[in-house]
């Protein structure tokens, strides 16, 4: 006894008796032409050398200012005095390296509690 699904399969096989695959409807043929139209529209712009030089100088100035600010910050942090016991306490409690513990203490002006809170957050 054949199930309903088997009957449907037999009917589909009978419809295509010529041996050629059934032709699929063409829904997306115009898509390739549309894509070419969109991609061909892009205009090429020439960048003048003076604009390029100006942009590079702005970027260079910004980098030098950031570098100078970073060096000044490092000098300020180096002036902060920290206790060896505080560094060892933070190292043991937070299980971090000496340099990270010292950096955190210096950033918080030697305040152990503030350094620990910042490291936990």
UniProtKB/TrEMBL annotation:
GO terms (BP aspect): negative regulation of apoptotic process; protein stabilization
Ranges of residues in domain Nascent polypeptide-associated complex subunit alpha-like UBA: 80-120
Annotated coiled-coil segments of the chain: none
Gene3D superfamilies per record: DNA helicase RuvA subunit, C-terminal domain (1.10.8.10)
The organism's place on the tree of life at top rank: Eukaryota
Region listing for Disordered, in residue ranges: 1-72
Extent of Acidic residues compositional bias: 1-15
Basic and acidic residues bias spans: 21-48, 60-72
Name under which the protein is recorded: Huntingtin-interacting protein K
């Amino acid at each position: 006894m054949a199930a309903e699904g088997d009957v449907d399969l037999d009917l589909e096989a009978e419809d295509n008796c010529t041996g050629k695959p059934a032709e699929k409807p063409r829904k997306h043929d115009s898509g390739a032409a549309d894509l070419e139209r969109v991609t061909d529209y892009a205009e090429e712009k020439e960048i003048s050398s003076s604009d390029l030089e100006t942009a590079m100088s702005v970027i260079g100035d910004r980098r030098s200012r950031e570098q100078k600010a970073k060096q000044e910050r490092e000098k300020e942090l180096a002036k902060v005095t920290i206790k060896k016991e505080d560094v060892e306490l933070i190292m043991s409690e937070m299980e971090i390296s000496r340099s990270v513990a010292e950096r955190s203490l210096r950033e918080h002006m030697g305040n152990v509690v503030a350094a620990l809170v910042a490291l936990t957050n």
